[in-house]
Amino acid sequence: MIAAIFGFAGVILGSLTTSVLTIYRERLVTQRESAVREQQHQRERKALRDTFQRDSILALQSAVTELIRAAYAELDRLLDELRRTGEWKARQWETPTATGWSTALLSLESSRARIFDDEIRSLADDLRTIAGESVWARDVETAKEASRKLEPLLGRFNATINRALPALY
Q1: Residue 68's pLDDT is what?
Q2: What CATH number corresponds to the domain at position 51?
Q3: 3-state DSSP assignment of residue 117
């Protein structure tokens, strides 16, 4: 009889121990799986963010290039007119928009809004401002002064992008 009681107690104790260990093991497995899922989710979010930033930076770089191309084309037009007439005809509100300027400006602004890097955004803004100053210059000297700033600033802009892009691949 005592042996049966001890046997029964052993079975109960064994069942309890097995149940507790099974529950503990399942909790550990669940926590581990949850941590792995969270890490995978974080990796996927980072990959999506990096892709978004990379595409946005490249779009901004193209928009800046197009804006500067439009500014140079307009400056060339103004210089041709200066050579022909001997007079710098400063742009007025009524002057037709420089070819490609509006499209490039809108593209620059929409791309710039998606960039997380403050330095890249700031440099793009500076390039937009200086390109505008060169196109809207009141005289040839002001246009020269503004346009001379464009290439070094564009170099800084591209160098900053060059430093930012590798981390996004």
Answers
A1: 96
A2: 1.20.120
A3: coil
- Within a domain: 13: no
How many whole angstroms separate alpha carbon 111 and alpha carbon 24?
51
Structure tokens at 166: 């590798």
Structural domain count, the chain: 1
Residue 88: half-sphere exposure toward Cβ, Cα within 13 Å: 14
Q: What is the pTM of this model?
A: 0.77
Query: What's the full length of the chain, in residues?
Result: 169
Tokens at 60, concatenated: 């901004």
Q: Are 71 and 135 in contact (CB under 8 A)?
A: yes
Report DSSP letters for 82-116, one per residue.
Answer: HHHHSS-----TTSPPPTTHHHHHHHHHHHHTT--
35 assigned to some structural domain: no
Task: Tell me whether residue 28 is in a domain.
Answer: no
Q: Are 97 and 36 in contact (CB under 8 A)?
A: no
* CA distances (Å), origin 53, targets 35, 58, 78: 27, 8, 37
| Token digits of residue 102 | 């509006």
Report pLDDT for 30: 84
Q: How does pLDDT run across 102-119, given as a tens digit for each residue? A: 999 999 999 999 999 999
In a domain, 5, yes or no: no
